[in-house]
Design brief:
By secondary structure, this protein is an all-alpha fold. The chain contains twelve helices and no strands.
C-alpha cells in the first residue's frame, strides 16, 4: 500500500514536470495568447462602461485608477507561472516539508517511505487472534463466523486502504484544475461586479495545496496511536475490537482533511463538499432538524391563527 505515494508522485511529475517542457505548463503557455485577447476585450468593456457612466452623469467623479487594474492583469498573465510558483507552490512545499520532517522525527522512523509504510499498517490494521486462554472470545473470530459482519469488515478494510489515495488523487486533480483556471480567472476579474472571483480563486487554490500538510499531520497522529500497546494487562474483547473501531474513525478523519485545510485560509470556500463524511453529517443534521421542528411548527401555526382571529 505504501506504493500509492510513489504512484501519485509519478502522476505529479507527469502533470508538473521539473523541466517545464510538457504537462500543464505547456497547456498554459498555449492558452496564454487567447487569455490576452479575452483580457483585452473585457478591458475595453470595463473602460467603456466607466466612461459611459461618467458621460451619463458628469457630476460623478471618474476613478483615476481605471487603467491600473487592466494593466496589472495583463502583467500577471505574462508572469503567470512564475507568480503561481512564488506565491502558491513554494510556500505550500515548505509547509509540506516541515510537516513531513516533524512527523518522521516524532515517530522515530528513518525516512518518508517507512513513514508511509507505518501509516498504512496503522489504517489497515486487522485484529489478531487471541492466544490467551483466560481472555474472552476473539472478536475477529466472531466477525469471521458471520458472513454479513465479515462482508462489512471487508468493506471497511477496502475503504481504509483507498481513502488516502482518494484524497491524494483529488488534491492532484484540483491542483491542476485551479492552475489552469487561473488563466481564465484573471481576465474575467475585469468584468464589473466580478472582482471577488480573483480572491476566491487564490484562497481556494491555496487551500487545496494545504491538503498535503494537513494529511501529514493526520498520518502522524494515526501512527502514534497505532504504537500504543493495548495488550499489556491481558486481552479482552474491547482490545481486540478496538482496531476495527479505530479504522472507522480514521476513515472519517482523513475525509475531513479539506475542512482542516480551510481552517488556515479564511477566504477559502468549501472545496470538498462531496466527501462521504460531510454528506452523512449534513443529511443527518437536516433530518434531525426537520423532525424536531415538525412538532413545534404545528402548534405555532395554530396559535398564530388564533391571534389573527382575535384581532380581526
Amino acid at each position: 500500500m505504501e506504493r500509492i505515494e510513489n504512484i501519485i508522485e509519478t502522476y505529479h511529475l507527469t502533470l508538473f514536470p521539473e523541466s517545464g517542457g510538457s504537462g500543464i505548463g505547456v497547456y498554459i503557455s498555449y492558452i496564454t495568447q487567447y487569455s490576452y485577447l479575452l483580457a483585452a476585450i473585457l478591458m475595453i468593456i470595463l473602460v467603456g462602461t466607466k466612461v459611459a457612466t461618467y458621460f451619463a452623469n458628469p457630476t460623478k467623479e471618474i476613478d483615476p485608477y481605471i487603467l491600473v487594474k487592466p494593466i496589472l492583469v495583463l502583467m500577471a498573465l505574462s508572469l503567470y507561472q512564475p507568480l503561481v510558483n512564488l506565491l502558491l507552490f513554494y510556500p505550500s512545499d515548505i509547509i509540506t516539508d516541515i510537516t513531513e520532517d516533524a512527523g518522521i522525527h516524532i515517530t522515530g522512523l528513518p525516512n518518508k517511505d517507512e513513514f508511509n509504510s507505518a501509516f498504512y499498517s496503522a489504517i489497515t490494521n486487522v485484529p489478531e487472534n487471541s492466544t490467551d486462554e483466560d481472555s474472552t472470545n476473539d472478536f475477529y473470530s466472531i466477525i469471521s463466523s458471520i458472513p454479513f459482519l465479515e462482508g462489512i469488515h471487508i468493506v471497511i478494510y477496502f475503504i481504509a486502504s483507498c481513502v488516502t489515495a482518494y484524497i491524494l488523487i483529488r488534491q492532484l486533480l484540483l491542483q491542476a484544475f485551479y492552475y489552469i483556471l487561473g488563466m481564465l480567472v484573471l481576465p474575467f476579474s475585469l468584468i464589473p461586479g466580478n472582482e471577488e472571483i480573483l480572491k476566491r480563486w487564490f484562497f481556494n487554490f491555496l487551500s487545496v495545496l494545504l491538503w498535503i500538510p494537513m494529511l501529514r499531520m493526520v498520518q502522524t497522529i494515526m501512527i502514534l496511536i497505532n504504537m500504543v500497546d493495548l495488550r499489556q494487562g491481558g486481552v479482552t474483547i474491547v482490545e481486540v475490537m478496538f482496531p476495527v473501531v479505530l479504522q472507522i474513525v480514521m476513515i472519517f478523519f482523513i475525509l475531513h482533511v479539506p475542512t482542516y485545510a480551510n481552517l488556515l485560509v479564511s477566504g477559502a470556500g468549501d472545496t470538498d463538499k462531496t466527501t462521504l463524511g460531510s454528506m452523512v453529517y449534513w443529511g443527518k443534521l437536516n433530518f434531525v432538524s426537520n423532525a424536531a421542528m415538525k412538532p413545534v411548527t404545528a402548534p405555532m401555526k395554530y396559535v398564530s391563527k388564533k391571534i389573527r382571529q382575535r384581532f380581526k
